Amino acid sequence: MRTPANPIEQSFELAASRGVDLTPVVYQRLFSEHPETRTMFRTHGSELVMGSMLALTIEAILDFAADRSGRFRLIACEVASHDAYGTPRELFIAFFAVIRDTLRDLLGDQWSRDIAQAWEKLLVEIDAFAGIAA
Ligand code: HEM
Questions:
Q1: What's the number of domains the chain is made of?
Q2: Residues 18-65: pLDDT tens digits?
Q3: CB of 41 closer than 6 A to ligand 1?
Q4: Is the CB of 49 under 6 A from ligand 1?
Q5: 107 with 15: CB under 8 angstroms?
Q6: What is the pTM of this model?
Q7: Domain carrying residue 99
């Protein structure tokens, strides 16, 4: 039997049930809140890289929020590789908050207290985790 979704998983499921493609909305928000990121992605093929980066980040978040079976480790690996892309750690971490804020705006009334608290806790934990990895 499938274990019930935790609030983080629920927030993604609720967004998915609205049939919204998260990629354009997340990157619109990233580029508007952190304009310096606009020019960080390559000119050719950036849609693929950006789509893949978001998909892998979401997988890592879901694993981090659940049983931490393995995919969450991507966060630690990427702190180091993003150093090489010239992405400062604060900005790297900001991507998670951009995802949270995008979901919050999309869900509106469905953004429950449980979901809000779970995200707040998750962001603090990821910050600490990435700090250790850096
Ligand atoms: C605002 C924060 C971030 C910025 C500005 C950023 C920037 C970038 C850039 C410029 C690339 C492309 C490098 C290339 O052209 O080959 C990239 C790739 C990637 N990023 Fe990020 N990144 C951010 C946050 C994250 C986070 C939080 C994760 C996951 C924990 C992540 C995971 C990845 C992965 C897996 C790739 C490779 C995608 C692929 O080619 O399949 N990034 N990122």
A1: 1
A2: 999 999 999 999 999 999 999 988 777 788 999 999 999 999 999 999
A3: yes
A4: yes
A5: yes
A6: 0.94
A7: 23-35+43-133
Q: Among 79, 82, 101, which residue has the most ligand 1 atoms within 8 Å of its CB, making it the best to mutate?
A: 82
DSSP 109: G
CB contact at 8 A, 66 and 6: yes
Token pair belonging to 40: 């960080």
Residues 6 or more apart whose Cβ sits within 8 Å of residue 128: none
Q: Do 128 and 116 touch, CB atoms closer than 8 A? A: no
Amino acid identity, residue 26? Answer: V
128 located within any domain: yes
Residue 3 falls inside a structural domain: no
Q: How far is the CA of 4 from the centre of ligand 1 (A)?
A: 30
Under 8 Å between Cβ of 44 and 38: no
